Amino acid sequence: MSEFVEIRWHARGGQGAVTAAKALAETALGEGKYVQAAPEYGPERAGAPLRAFNRISDKPIRLHSAVIAPKIVVVLDPTLVGAVDISEGTPEDATIIVNTPGSPGEIRQKMALKGRKIFTVDATKIAMDTFGLPIPNTPMMGALIKVTGLLQLDNVLKDVEKTLGKKFVGKVVEGNLQAVRRAYEEVKGE
């Protein structure tokens, strides 16, 4: 890992991006890494666009500012592609992961994007199939882990189970764990 990896999450309120950023930070911390996780809200209401951020490093992170050049972008709501510049500030070798039933090539074409690695996974369908709610955050975590190799899948699963176990019954928790695993297997790139 270079000095640190920066991740920007794009979503709408209620899709779980802030929860995912915090859970990712917890897992990274548990793996002995240094982390930051922060939300950036506009109007605080369900459905409003929002961003969340992570920094993950093997060394202490001395930078305390907004993430402006993320190496990884995770998009939980496909309607934001084209509505928001999700590639803003990304370097040519950045990785973009989008929740969509479409292919990486379709996303590249829609964004008229050169460079960058694009991955897609139908996280909303996976969420509906596994725990019955259109909340794509846990499947997107699975896709992120598969694509980047930043953290160990088993550790992510353990932390998702711990975090969600405090709020939800076993069936919902197990469904989310299945969603993480399934997205890990189903994410596709070009």
Describe the 3D structure.
This protein is α/β, with parallel strands linked by helices. The chain has one domain (5-189): 3-Layer(aba) Sandwich (Pyruvate-ferredoxin Oxidoreductase, domain 3). It has six helices and seven strands. The chain has helices spanning 17-30, 104-111, 123-131, 137-148, 153-165, 170-186, and strands at 5-12, 34-40, 49-57, 72-75, 95-99, 117-121, 188-189. It has a seven-stranded mixed sheet, sandwiched between helices. A hairpin with an 8-residue loop joins strand 2 and strand 3 (49-57). Helix 1 (17-30) crosses helix 4 and helix 3 packs antiparallel against helix 6. The two termini are 23 Å apart.
Q: How many separate helices?
A: 6
Global structural class: alpha/beta
Mean pLDDT: 93
Order of strands side by side in the largest beta sheet? Answer: 2-3-1-4-5-6-7
User: What pattern of helices and strands is seen along the backbone?
Assistant: EHEEEEHEHHHHE
Helix share bin: 25-40%
Q: How many strands appear in the DSSP assignment?
A: 7
**Can you tell me the CATH class?**
Alpha Beta
Distance between the termini: 23 Å
Determine Rg (CA atoms, Å).
15 Å
Oligomer: single chain
Q: Quote the CATH topology.
A: Pyruvate-ferredoxin Oxidoreductase, domain 3
Corresponding CATH architecture: 3-Layer(aba) Sandwich
Domain module tally: 1
**Estimated share of beta-strand residues:** 15-25%
Major sheet attributes: 7 strands, mixed
Q: Spans with pLDDT under 50 lasting ≥5 residues?
A: none
CATH homologous superfamily identity: Pyruvate-ferredoxin oxidoreductase, PFOR, domain III
